[in-house]
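Record type: monomer structure entry
Structure origin: computed from sequence
Chain ID: A
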Amino acid sequence: MENQILPGHVDAMIAALKNIGQGSLAEQIAEHLQEGVKATMIEGKKSTITIKLEISRQSDEMITLVGSSDAKIPRQKPSGSFFVDPMKNYQIGRNRPDQQVLPSM
């Protein structure tokens, strides 16, 4: 038997995502998707979005769906270069330790 995605199945999934947490899950997924697309385009690294749905039986006729989403998005790592002065207990600074400073006028 071949897997078929029927329109009714897609509609049921979309309706569930829209209704879990009064739409907050769908909003969270959309935000993760937008962040992931932007970060991937800027950083050139892949992003991953995971959607988790927990299904619990409440009765013979009812279930509870609990949803969550998580995103692994590449982030830029700020960096800077500094000089180290071993004569001042290895203090870091923007100027070379042995650089002469001209007096201000």
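Annotation 1: The chain has a mean pLDDT of 90.
Annotation 2: The helical segments are 7-19, 24-43.
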